[in-house]
Amino acid sequence: GDSVTQMEGPVTLSEEAFLTINCTYTATGYPSLFWYVQYPGEGLQLLLKATKADDKGSNKGFEATYRKETTSFHLEKGSVQVSDSAVYFCALSDGGGNKLTFGTGTQLKVEL
Amino acid sequence: DAGVIQSPRHEVTEMGQEVTLRCKPISGHNSLFWYRQTMMRGLELLIYFNNNVPIDDSGMPEDRFSAKMPNASFSTLKIQPSEPRDSAVYFCASSRRTSGGQETQYFGPGTRLLVL
């Protein structure tokens, strides 16, 4: 079945550092890929998405590129802020887009 | 828009009691999803509905769990009887399904359930 593998956290960075959170997936067909963010005590919010190979999703300085050849969708940000501290989930949807399969989440802590 | 609304936000109950979680999806959305989040298992899809009809309930843990969607603006997830291992955060999400596929899922704030 479909699966998503994320790097384990927590990831601790200093403000303005470069961020990479790795995500790889296994899926049949051509899934859409997503990054969701969860701030403490809140639900998940869509951060960005990509629906086909080589698409780049971007939002709030974050970006990720759908790499079919490496089955990856790594999340990057050039300069993190304390306010980016949260848990980040990589996810994929099946061909019909009905079901989201999530990775285990990666906690990011950004310190001054 | 108010977003997806869930109630209660927190629930503490004793083992064996019935628990009912409620969800109001975003107006105009025709798909609704129930998820469970635990430290051990992460985020799991329990069940989803399209146009108020349950489509896939393969994620429902066992017969103690049931979900209903009597109309487009309301859904419930019921656990009866509840057990300590049901303690988790339960999320509801909604989206719009069109001929082009499923659009983005929007999540509610979750219900944090503790079964003693």
Task: Tell me what you see in this structure.
The complex is a heterodimer of chains A (112) and B (116). Chain A is mostly beta strands and 112 residues long. In chain A, 0% of the residues lie in helices and 51% in strands. In chain A, the strands form three sheets. In chain A, strands 2, 5, 6, 10, 11 and 12 form a six-stranded mixed beta sheet that branches. Chain A starts with a strand and ends with a strand. Chain B has no helices and 13 strands. Chain B has strands at residues 5-7, 10-13, 19-24, 31-38, 42-50, 53-56, 65-71, 74-79, 88-95, 97-98, 101-102, 106-107, 111-115. Chain B is globular and about 45 Å long. The chains are: A mainly beta (112), B mainly beta (116). Chain A binds chain B through residues 36, 41-46, 49, 89, 93, 96-105, and chain B through 4, 31, 33, 42-43, 45, 48, 50, 55-56, 91, 93, 97, 101-110.
Estimate the helix proportion of chain B, in percent: under 10%
- Taken from the alpha-carbon principal axes, the silhouette of chain B is globular
Number of strands of chain A: 12
Low-confidence stretches of chain A: none
> What is the residue-averaged pLDDT of chain B?
92
SSE pattern of chain A: EEEEEEEEEEEE
Which value, in Å, is the CA radius of gyration of chain B? 14 Å
**Which strand-content bin applies to the residues of chain B?**
over 45%
Tally the helices of chain A: what do you get? Answer: 0
Summarize the main sheet of chain A. 6 strands, mixed
Number of helices of chain B: 0
Average pLDDT rating of chain A: 92
Tell me about the largest β-sheet of chain B. Answer: 7 strands, mixed
Report the sheet-strand fraction of chain A. Answer: over 45%
How much helical structure, as a percent, in the residues of chain A?
under 10%
> Whole-Å distance between the termini of chain A?
41 Å
Could you tell me how far the N terminus lies from the C terminus of chain B, measured between alpha carbons in angstroms? 36 Å
Structural class of the helix and strand makeup of chain A?
mainly beta
